[in-house]
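Entry for the shared binder. Reason: the reviewer on the internal report wants the predicted structure included alongside the sequence.
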Amino acid sequence: MSVASSPPESAIFGSREHLDVSRALSELQARRPVRVSTSDESLIALPVEGLDDRRLREFAMLCSPVMPKLIVTQQRARAIGIETSTPMALSLPGTIGAKGIFELAAGARNHIAMESEAASSAATAAIRLVKLARGLPAILAASVTASDRDKGQSIAAVEAGAINRFVEDATNSLAVVSEASIPLASGTSARFVVFRDALGIDQVAIVVGKPDLSAPVPVRLHSACLTGDVFGSRRCDCGDQLQLALARLESLGGGIILYLAQEGRGIGLANKMRAYRLQDGGLDTRDANTTLGFEDDERDYGVAAQMLRILDCTRIVLLTNNPAKLDGLTKAGIEITARVPLEAPVTPHNKRYLTTKAVRSGHKLVMLKTPANEKS
């Protein structure tokens, strides 16, 4: 049987763009370099995460004679004293090692005098790609020419525009892959519906009891929190909120919890631990995230809206203290008829965390009687 070449949109491989981004993500997760291109530039990018001196030397040889630069987000640039509204490319001293580069990319806040310039479109797209891979948002990058042609290495290549389109495509690709009924400890039965997107990420809807879909359905959007939900960490109120939400839905006769794979406000578990280390050094939750180069909140609620649509649930009562969740779902086409607060107890361990959420992120926390000018 003869095998014809794959069409631009293959049932097996998907689109060429999708395939390129998927392969590039896999390479970055394996800490290998990728080639990112625009119409007028091509560069090789290597994640800073996992960098050691040997990998640094080999990457410098791969890029030679061009010296790699460190690409950081605007948030990280501001944390090290560079006033900017765009990602930046930092020129590195020839003597710097892997440890020094990692400190520049993710160390405690400091001000460093060094030559810098606005990052190119290709470098900015590479930063977005490494974020999609749930890595630290910092890369080493060097421009290359067609004559370099990977210098004997097979390097995955991707167009910058394809990266920018991939997130929306991944959300639209969301589909139910399995479901089952699970009896809960309280005696209530729940249906666990597992969704998966083009990134291979599992999202879960827990349908508690038998919600009436003809009326606004009580819904809780809950970002996964391994430390709080599973191990009862007192640094946050996540585990308490999950249990409160479950009890509230059971008392109402049914509802839905969307358990979203958005650990650490969307920065991932490894980066969440890095943020905790920075918090131990004195930063609050918000500043720890931005010091690492992230937005205060990296979550995208488009996936939650898509899950609700697939469940035929587009009118909801939202259990939340976070106005951003209302805004995100409303913009994604979900009708929110009411908001129900969900306040966990304030303790000495989580008070600073909750104060930051209330004072700096606008969370509606009536129980927290903290003055607006209190340092958080």
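Summary line for the report: The chain has two domains: 9-169, 173-262+299-361.
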